[in-house]
Amino acid sequence: ADELVKAVHRVMTFADGERRLKVRANADNAEDAARARRFGAQGIGLCRTEHMFLGDRRELVERLILAENKQEQEEALEQLLPLQKGDFVELFEAMDGLPVTVRLIDPPLHEFLPDLTELSVKAAVAEARGEDVSESQRLLHCVQRLHEQNPMLGLRGVRLGLVIPGLFIMQVRAIAEAAAERRAAGGDPHAEIMIPLVGTVQELEIVREEAEQVIREVQQASGTELDIAIGTMIELPRAAVTAGQIAEAAEFFSFGTNDLTQTTWGFSRDDVEASFFSQYLEKGIFGVSPFETIDRDGVGELVRMGAERGRATRPGIKLGVCGEHGGDPDSVHFFHEVGLDYVSCSPFRIPVARLEAGRAATESEGSDFR
Ligand code: PEP
Ligand code: MG
């Protein structure tokens, strides 16, 4: 077994020496980050901050979204800020010296709203009993107003950030303050802020301006120079097509191939178990699910186009991918061909991604490391 471990180690060292793609991890907490580091991750390519709001904190986000006035909003934000800051301090500590791409919150809205049917029933029961229904009616109207038939195509990502006052800014402040705190403690944090689901450069410009303002404020208050890059996900066909414009406001792109596959094919990510999908596989309409292996002709072309157009506007723009495809062998080869800078995948897939990135590099140079 010892010999085997040594052999694997030699192969990995060789692959690492050859590969041009960096390999980062998708991780949302210090434990996953530490695990990713042990597997050889060179940073975090995607921290999904919505995962930090599950459990006890869900209610705070719900309160923020449903706030009736500025005071209620501010109360919720004040409670959220120190919690978020604590999350990032831990994450930056675990990834000291390495880049950490923090994606601002991107949940489908219904995950943070009370259930509409339940609310309707409660309001009806209260009314039948002759109770005071003004509060339950208010809540019901509020949730009705926000209810969506297709939450995955609705108020998500940057849209939520633009519509709910203070939400993104609270997160940016938490990131900046956490970075300043780590710096003051002698650490070496490398925070990057990523905006999800951008479809037009205007969305990014608005968020960027507000974020830069907050980062400046934190820099001044802490007396620390914070070099925080702001970039975006490219996960909508429109974003790939207009990548040349978007790159004006983005220091990096990360291709979100999960959503990009969903929106390019028009297949729901959450329904790939649907019967027609398996029939498609059986009929050979595609060999493998495009959610697993990058569809080179369609989704892949959009990635290529996004990369080329982004580079044309901003030569040297950092390019990565953080969808599930980032850890899929065949897709890793494709991302090497397109010339991305890194792939980001779940911690357990990192060794495979390192190996495949090494193989892709030597294959394209005609070596026999296969
Ligand atoms: C993606 O869409 O590919 C992505 C990485 O974001 P999420 O899976 O969180 O939507
Ligand atoms: Mg996405």
UniProtKB/TrEMBL annotation:
Domain called PEP-utilising enzyme C-terminal: residue spans: 8-358
Signal peptide as annotated in the record: none
Keyword field: ATP-binding, Kinase, Magnesium, Metal-binding, Nucleotide-binding, Pyruvate, Transferase
Domain of life: Bacteria
Keyword Hydrolase: no
UniProt keyword ATP-binding, yes or no: yes
GO function term, MF aspect, one: pyruvate, phosphate dikinase activity
Family the UniProt entry places it in: Belongs to the PEP-utilizing enzyme family.
Record's protein name: Pyruvate, phosphate dikinase
Organism field: Streptomyces chilikensis
Residues of the full protein shown: 528 to 897 of 897
